[in-house]
Task: inverse folding
């Protein structure tokens, strides 16, 4: 089969590696890809929002399957556009991708169908939102309604701070049109776990759990980022929690979307918080997490192409989704200064150390080949070093050892990815 993968980050490199393991694959293209993906796929210089060009390419090359796992093109209707041309595509249609694209939609869905989540109110008017804040308890959580690169969430400790937050979102439009509407919700506490699932409109199959580390600094300090590291599985996602989520969250969400006339197909990402009152949904995403995919996909035994096809055909119930009984840890190597201000174009050394090393991956997140043919940094999050291990502790030791194999000027990483695991031993 000829497959076209849309995107060019660390997540797409992990997806490309999983597709590449399928005996069904004859040719893999990636648009636009990156310097790492180029080692296992043919990269084509078409942007992820250039639907017309992507469709033209898919027709010209007689692509059998296109795979998309990015919020912007999914919410903008890339799947609908491909389907309208009779092309087979794995991803979520726009009318269902709204589960990520609009926080007010997803919160209202959860309320209507009794899916546990933080209490909230939706506002379209800054004055009414500010008035409501006078009666809130603190801290309180403000969320811009639309897509904001994972940055549209403010946790405010006081009324003054929250009032300024409302002005930033709704009046100054810090997150653009994403702030035309906003959600104000109750602050929850507890450990966060991500559970990704394949969905075919009706059936849902869960992947192994994972945990992200969103803050830039060790000990979860400093600014929020797109994610500085992950591990899978999460030992905090116990059998009891799994049972509660299966009962109250997973199938209920799929059924709710179908009942709304928005059948969900693709990857559904449940951002969960383990609160004192049980697991609650923090957010839904309509795609593989980044960098969750980097630790989940290397552990997946089932052929990814088979799973994508079953999702398209509505036959996911016939797939046995299996994962290795091992663990994976991902350490993100970022450019110094990320997420605020950082330089690009630094030469990356040591990538060859990952060649033919089973159980180790160096996924490229922000890299490119420069004019001299050298692989250089091209983003804030540059590389995702992933290692497998028999246990999480072993995977973590392996990942940190492998993180020393690569370097570039002023590179930065967190040193405590998966450190929470140590608490488990006490
Ligand atoms: P979101 O974009 O909705 O995932 O939010 C980003 C991050 O903000 C989450 O991963 C949480 O760490 C935090 N967050 C969001 N909503 C809440 C909430 N209601 N209570 C506490 N933390 C939250
Ligand atoms: N790692 C969080 C996300 O992909 O949204």
Result:
């Amino acid at each position: 089969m000829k497959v076209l993968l849309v995107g060019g980050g660390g997540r797409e490199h992990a997806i490309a590696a999983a597709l590449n393991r399928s005996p069904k694959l004859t040719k893999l293209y990636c648009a636009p890809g990156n310097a790492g993906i180029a080692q296992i796929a043919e990269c084509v210089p078409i942007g992820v929002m250039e639907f017309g060009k992507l469709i033209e390419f898919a027709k010209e090359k007689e692509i059998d399957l296109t795979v998309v796992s990015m919020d912007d093109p999914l919410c903008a209707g890339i799947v609908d556009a491909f389907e309208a041309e009779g092309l087979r595509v794995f991803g979520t249609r726009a009318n269902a991708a709204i589960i990520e694209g609009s926080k007010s939609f997803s919160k209202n869905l959860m309320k209507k169908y009794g899916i546990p989540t933080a209490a909230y109110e939706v506002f379209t008017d800054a004055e009414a939102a500010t008035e409501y804040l006078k009666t809130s308890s603190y801290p309180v959580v403000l969320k811009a309604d639309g897509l904001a690169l994972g940055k549209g969430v403010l946790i405010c400790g006081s009324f003054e701070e929250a009032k300024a937050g409302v002005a930033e979102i709704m009046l100054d439009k810090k997150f653009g049109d994403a702030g035309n509407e906003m959600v104000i919700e109750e602050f929850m506490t507890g450990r966060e776990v991500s559970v990704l699932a394949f969905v075919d409109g009706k059936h849902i199959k869960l992947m192994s759990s994972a945990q992200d580390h969103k803050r830039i600094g060790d000990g979860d300090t400093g600014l929020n980022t797109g994610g500085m590291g992950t591990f899978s599985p999460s030992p905090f996602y116990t059998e009891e929690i799994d049972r509660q989520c299966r009962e109250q969250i997973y199938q209920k969400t799929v059924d709710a979307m179908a009942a709304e006339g928005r059948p969900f197909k693709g990857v559904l990402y449940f951002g969960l918080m383990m609160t004192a009152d049980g697991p609650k949904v923090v957010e839904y995403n309509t795609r593989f997490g980044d960098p969750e995919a980097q630790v989940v996909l290397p552990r997946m035994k089932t052929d990814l192409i088979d799973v994508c096809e079953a999702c398209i055909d509505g036959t996911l119930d016939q797939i046995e989704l299996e994962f290795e009984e091992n663990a994976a840890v991902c350490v993100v190597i970022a450019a110094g200064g990320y997420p605020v201000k950082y330089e690009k174009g630094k030469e990356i050394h040591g990538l060859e150390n990952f060649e033919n090393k089973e159980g180790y991956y160096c996924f490229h997140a922000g890299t490119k080949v420069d004019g001299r043919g050298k692989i250089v940094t091209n983003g804030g999050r540059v590389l995702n070093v992933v290692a497998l291990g028999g246990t999480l502790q072993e995977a973590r030791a392996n990942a940190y050892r492998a993180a020393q194999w690569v370097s570039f000027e002023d590179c930065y990483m967190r040193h405590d990815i998966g450190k929470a695991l140590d608490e488990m031993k006490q």
Summary: The chain has a mean pLDDT of 95. Residues 150, 212, 227, 285, 289-290, 292 surround glycine (ligand 2) (CB under 6 Å). Residues 317 and 422 are 37 Å apart (CA to CA). The two ends are 49 Å apart (CA to CA).
